[in-house]
Design brief:
Length: 493
């Protein structure tokens, strides 16, 4: 089992295609907010001007810092499947811990609306798959991936807090929001989402400390601990196995706020904010699963063994439980603690953005995501790749064109494009990088969707009636500094 999982980690770390994380670089558009509610519940307040309906939305994202891939392997279906290292793909030389992320995020039917012109509500459906692996030192990664290289014979590798996990689940979110303040100069809104989580399948392999040494073509020894947790359908025999829920229902929580500042507000026409700030903490919670047979904390101890002898063989019929039983019988594995259930945490993250209006339809937006999900000593929790993003864009009515510049894990550079045309949006963090850098692709993503707004003509109108001083009063500067000094009557949206 331990060899299988070490191999699984290696495969995951070499992954270069996957499905997704979030809409990196997408503007906080006022057209609709329901498609961005999963990333900040405060955006539900965009529905004040009309009912919003999400038709579809999907995001595709994968990244790693172990391998780069030639672009022809990604975009040419006829490319040779027998990839050659150094030609079709190559190792990224860096001293970082090797990690990889492969995530899927599909936003299903969703709707938002306003209640009594004061409260905003929304409900959405979402399906997600999150794969995470890593914390393998650069030198140890070379040992794992160079079994035939004599240079790495008799090398002792020590893995500490290393693992891999995969989590597939769905959610139904109910969002409530309110505009806490709204006058001529600034707006402040907040939102909260409570979501019902439905776990479908999950697995986690984690070691606090595991030593590994290879002698020539044999393993000198493997010694340490290994926690293996998985549901019965992680090795599915058919698609129907994946549609069955191996997890229990649970609740999750998102919290968010959004602020907009306006200067030189003209009451006779709609004007854009000078700058906007938003922050959110998303995916607070976890999903409980029923563990399959063989899920346990193992003490691993084995002497010299042929490398091929410790992998799954035909006699195991690709079943973890059969392999485990065989290794327990030959004393390679000792069960320290069995698990009948386990929890997989959601990819808890802090998200923040700032958007500045330079005028003439030119904006500059900065976004960041910081992963807050760690490991609890038993489970290697799925998490997102932290990043910082800067997106300059041209924003004119329903047309928005941007160029996101992203540093994934604050190191790996990616250059992309994003495009909005009314209800339709399409973007990629890495599209330009793929074209310009070609053979240096270590991450890839794309997102798209369609969200409609059914506007209320009456809500579009804004009526302002000012006190006797009038809008051009010489005290206007004072009124800007003290919100509310300029009295407003019959204001509506």
């Amino acid at each position: 089992m331990y060899k299988r999982y070490i191999t699984a980690i290696t495969i995951l770390l070499s992954t270069h295609l996957g499905i997704a994380q979030q809409f990196i670089g997408m503007p906080n558009t006022e057209y609709t907010g329901i498609q961005q509610v999963p990333y900040n519940p405060a955006f539900i307040n965009n529905s004040r001007s009309g009912v919003e309906v999400n038709v579809f939305g999907a995001s595709i994202f994968a990244a790693n810092n172990a391998y780069g891939v030639n672009s022809r392997m990604l975009f040419n279906p006829a490319a040779d499947t027998n990839a050659v290292e150094g030609k079709d793909y190559f190792r990224l030389r860096n001293s970082q811990y090797k990690k990889a992320w492969v995530n899927a995020d599909i936003l299903g039917p969703a709707v938002s609306f306003t209640y009594k012109k004061k409260y905003q509500f929304g409900i959405y459906t979402r399906f997600r798959t999150i794969v995470n692996a890593g914390k393998v030192k650069d030198t140890l990664f070379d040992v794992l991936t160079n079994e035939k290289n004599p240079y790495y014979y008799f090398y002792t590798a020590q893995f500490d807090k290393t693992g891999a996990s995969a989590h597939m689940f769905g959610e139904i979110g109910i969002t409530a929001g309110q505009m806490l303040h709204d006058d001529e100069y600034y707006k402040l809104s907040a939102g909260v989402t409570v979501k019902y989580l439905m776990g479908f399948a999950a697995m986690s392999v984690y070691t606090k400390s595991l030593g590994y040494k290879r002698d020539n073509d044999s393993i000198g020894y493997i010694k340490g601990d290994l926690t293996a947790l998985y549901t019965y359908n992680t090795n599915p025999s058919s698609i129907s196995d994946l549609t069955q829920r191996a997890g229990k229902g649970s609740l999750g929580l998102d919290l968010g706020m959004h602020y907009e500042f306006y200067d030189d507000q003209d009451p006779n026409k709609k004007t854009n904010y000078r700058f906007a700030l938003s922050a959110a903490i998303t995916d607070i919670g976890s999903v409980s699963y029923v563990a399959d047979k063989g899920s346990a904390l193992y003490d691993v101890k084995t002497g010299a063994t042929e490398v091929h002898d410790i992998s799954l063989e035909d006699q195991d019929k690709d079943e973890f439980t059969l392999f485990t039983a065989r290794k327990i019988a030959d004393a390679s594995l000792t069960v320290k603690k069995k698990y009948e259930k386990f929890n997989i945490g959601l990819p808890t993250a802090f998200r923040a953005s700032a958007d500045y209006n330079f005028g003439e339809h030119v904006f500059l937006q900065a976004n960041t995501l910081i992963n807050l999900r760690g490991n609890n000593g038993k489970v290697y929790h799925p998490g997102y790749a932290s990043y910082i993003n800067i997106t300059p864009r041209y924003d004119h009515g329903s047309v928005k064109i941007g160029m996101p510049i992203t540093f994934i894990r604050f190191r790996t550079f990616a250059l992309g494009t994003v495009f909005n045309l009314g209800p339709f949006y399409l973007g990629s963090t890495t599209s330009l990088s793929s074209i310009l850098l070609g053979s240096n692709i270590s991450n890839i993503d794309v997102y798209t969707g369609l969200t409609l707004k059914i506007s209320n003509a009456e809500k579009k109108a804004r009526e302002f009636t000012y006190d006797y001083r009038g809008y051009d009063d010489p005290n206007r500067g004072l009124r800007k500094l003290i919100p509310g000094f300029l009295k407003r009557r019959n204001y509506r949206y």
